[in-house]
Amino acid sequence: MIEIRGISKSFKDHEVLKDINLKIPDKKILGLIGINGAGKSTLLRVISGIYSADDGVVLVDGENAFDNENVKKKMFFLSDDPFYTARTTPASLLTLMNTFYPVNEVTYFETLDKFKIPIHKRMDKFSKGMKRQVFVSLAFAIRPKYMLLDEAFDGLDPLARVEFKNQIKDMVDKLGTTVIISSHSLKELEDLCDAFAILNNTKIAASGSIEESIGVLHKYQIAFKEDIDIHFFPRIYKHIEKDGRVVRLISELNLKDIEEKLKDMKPVFIDELPIEFEEVFTAIVENGGKMVWKRYSYITLEEESQQF
């Protein structure tokens, strides 16, 4: 288990993380979500022990993660721009990484073959996506207990993304790996991760099960006979937008309650639409994380971890 207790981190006068608290149970795939500059990469570097925190501590299986060789052996962190020399090839990269980790060579070369990566060609001649595939192959071959991936989908083509997801799920199922993956692609995370944490304004705005969070909110499309001013719309929404006489909103209320609240406005129709996790994320950020999760028996990651 990874426990993040009161982590704060600043760079000079710029505060990036403030009092971050999160528990990540074993065998989970956690999506770390946030807008650009939210602190996702910094948090991953603190968890992996690359950065020291100004305050707080990260515990991995009960041990302080910072400057801890035992923890480093269990964990592999793939940054958004990993280091390699000008003459590095996928084959020579394996030789280098074998000095730090026990790498399964069969898995490494099999995964590279699936990605159709030439193993003796210099990586500085590769496209961004090809470089990403090399390091993703390496991550799978190391088979760590904890795998941290920063912007993992960046540069991967659609087929590579499918293979990437399948490999991650396989590692979790067969090896019990815990994965933390940051990404701007919320749609990619929705069908891969079973848990999420949203970073916003230096803090964790919300965290928990993706499936449960989608069930908490509802999306409605409402049509009116005449144009309306949404500034005078009842405050029953977490997010609202208007297109002519049609209003789309996201709310915690169920359809029956929505119909009751809007009956005096005499809508032509009210339809409930499928909601995506990206829309849930938007609603959480716009409301500063102030969602009434408990009202719907929502289980946070911290509460869930106590069940293990």
TrEMBL record:
Signal peptide: none
Domain ABC transporter: 2-226
Keyword Nucleotide-binding attributed: yes
PANTHER family to which the protein is assigned, alphabetical: ABC TRANSPORTER ATP-BINDING PROTEIN ALBC-RELATED
Keywords annotated in UniProt: ATP-binding, Nucleotide-binding, Transport
Keyword DNA damage attached: no
Gene3D superfamilies: P-loop containing nucleotide triphosphate hydrolases
GO terms, molecular function: ATP binding; ATP hydrolysis activity
Organism (species): Anaeroplasma bactoclasticum
Protein name in the entry: ABC-2 type transport system ATP-binding protein
Pfam families named in the record: ABC_tran
